[in-house]
């Protein structure tokens, strides 16, 4: 194994690619040996909007954190307890770190595993307060509970041919799909997705594959809306005004939708230009029909040092919850349990049903160019940046 390199959070607004320690099969909290782990050579690893929250200084992430929770890799070393994987296998890594043994994991709620994070339920790679697991925006990374967590691709050559699509299985495609499923999307549904970023586009694509009749995507970013329209979704330009129901009615004939998906999260902005962290959630309640469902894959945090007010700094938002109650709506929140969906979505990709890389406008860049990717993404680029640490995507 050559020396490791990784994307490191330096401080608000700054990341650097640095030499980092080679991964070892030991737990981050107490150093105990993990015979159920593997070491991966990272084939691809993506920049995520959730990473941007940390890089903007909107969380309590410490300087020196190695980033990256969207990982696809090749097994190059495995522990003595790993039985289902072999050296050379190409695998997708769910961003959830999960033990496979606790009550939540047994019930497929792997986003809130009870054992991998001493601070609270749920673990993830390279993320603040998620158990200390080293991130995968690197050349090499360690993955615990490998037999349970990793999704092996059935054919190596086929996987490398479709790697730009398959790299989305680690997070944004299952997250978008979870948002659509939890919003109750089905055949004939009229759907509104808030946010035309990669997760919003993945949610829109998921709504289509689930049979939606109309899929609308709303945003202020004109470049992202133009791309969404090219992909077959109905754009809703929020610059046109604050009467979302009327804009939806211009497309569908009704100001209400069957299902709404919040792919924006806590850094939402309103027409006044400033942050309004609850605005999307309140809009979802307004436009969703009585007894409709609202899926919320967008990130909301318990601590936000950069919030607009003291309440929002601890995740307390000003919601019109009475409206949602009066309309008998259902809200579905939390980290996506990737393992619930990734195998089925892999099949959809491998059989040509879901060209997700084109839908989210994936752009492959080198690991060493990660800082430029972060900057472009932060400025609203209509792209999903995929890092290629070993040049394997370019070769493929």
Automatic annotation (TrEMBL):
Cofactor needs = Zn(2+)
Q: Which CDD domains match?
A: PFDH_like
InterPro entries xref list? ADH-like_C, ADH-like_N, ADH_Zn_CS, GroES-like_sf, HCHO_DH_non_GSH, NAD(P)-bd_dom_sf
Give all residue intervals belonging to the Alcohol dehydrogenase-like N-terminal domain: 36-154
SUPFAM superfamilies, per database record: GroES-like (SSF50129), NAD(P)-binding Rossmann-fold domains (SSF51735)
Its domain of life reads Bacteria
| GO molecular function ontology, one term from the record | oxidoreductase activity
A Pfam family matched in the record = ADH_zinc_N
Ranges for domain Alcohol dehydrogenase-like C-terminal? 198-299
Gene3D superfamilies in the record, alphabetically? Answer: Medium-chain alcohol dehydrogenases, catalytic domain, NAD(P)-binding Rossmann-like Domain
What keyword terms does UniProt attach to this protein? Metal-binding, NAD, Oxidoreductase, Plasmid, Zinc
Record family assignment:
Belongs to the zinc-containing alcohol dehydrogenase family.
Q: Which NCBIfam families match?
A: fdhA_non_GSH
What name does UniProt use for this protein?
Answer: Glutathione-independent formaldehyde dehydrogenase
| Organism of derivation | Celeribacter indicus
